[in-house]
Amino acid sequence: MKLYKTKKGNIVEHQNKFWLLEQAWDELINRDDLHVYLAKAVRTGGELSALDAADLLEQDLLAPIGSQEVWAAGVTYLRSRAARLEESKDSGGASFYDKVYEAERPELFFKSQPQRVAAHGERVYIRRDSSWNLPEPELTLFINSQGLIQAYTIGNDMSSRSIEGENPLYLPQAKVYERSAALGPCLFVPSSPISPNTMIRMTIQREGGSVYRGEVAISQIKRSLTELAGWLYRESDYIHGCFLMTGTCLVPGNDFTMLEGDKVEISIDGIGMLSNTVSYKPQGPHRQGLI
Ligand code: DO4
Ligand code: MG
What we know:
By secondary structure, the chain is α+β, with helices and mostly antiparallel strands. The protein contains eight helices and 19 strands. The chain is globular and about 60 Å long. The model has no long low-confidence stretch (mean pLDDT about 95). Magnesium ion binds near residues 138 and 247.
């Protein structure tokens, strides 16, 4: 089952049929058995024609987030460890990435407040003070307030690799800024946990051609998804639940950086495709002269 958030209500999709659920998002998704709840709700909810559903999803789609925080895990795949060792070799920070890959405690960092998150089709930003910028395609968990994984979505953990590489203490600036996170297009709510054979794919398009293409199975992850969720909830409560990006496994080569106008397309089996165009943050008059 897929659950979309739109400006005009929430849409459930199941076996090519669509239903509208007009419930507050936070209340709707924060349940112990979201799949069972949605299966029951569609039996009594108003069915939408495929045409109406397509219109709403085209024109009114929002990121599938309400009041939740977005957190992220790092260095959970060998490819990310290798890329970080390379990026931080001059700063002397390389051993931290090596250690965290092997350690019992994972790297978890705060990624985004809901209002900074881009939806499918919206722009994501790169920083003007960063010379090396990459998208990070990540399977993202929706974990309810009880700490149980209820759904999955696609996440893009946009990152400044030059700022992170200069000094690991700059990680929050490399990772947290306007539109540095994208989530969508929907919550995928299966009846059982996502299969380890699930593939993540990313392409980056520039001026009509493809400049990067990669794919990997989520079975390559070093830690289990429940382990990551467990660490996140150890000493924190998330009253509306929480999103957790689970780390990147697809990293373009060191000579690649994103440019304004690039289109990043991330697909995950069963969930769909999250597409965003890269841009600099527009500078309003009130912001000029600050930097
Ligand atoms: O340690 C830096 C961030 C790592 C990360 O975001 C990832 O591996 O996906
Ligand atoms: Mg990441």
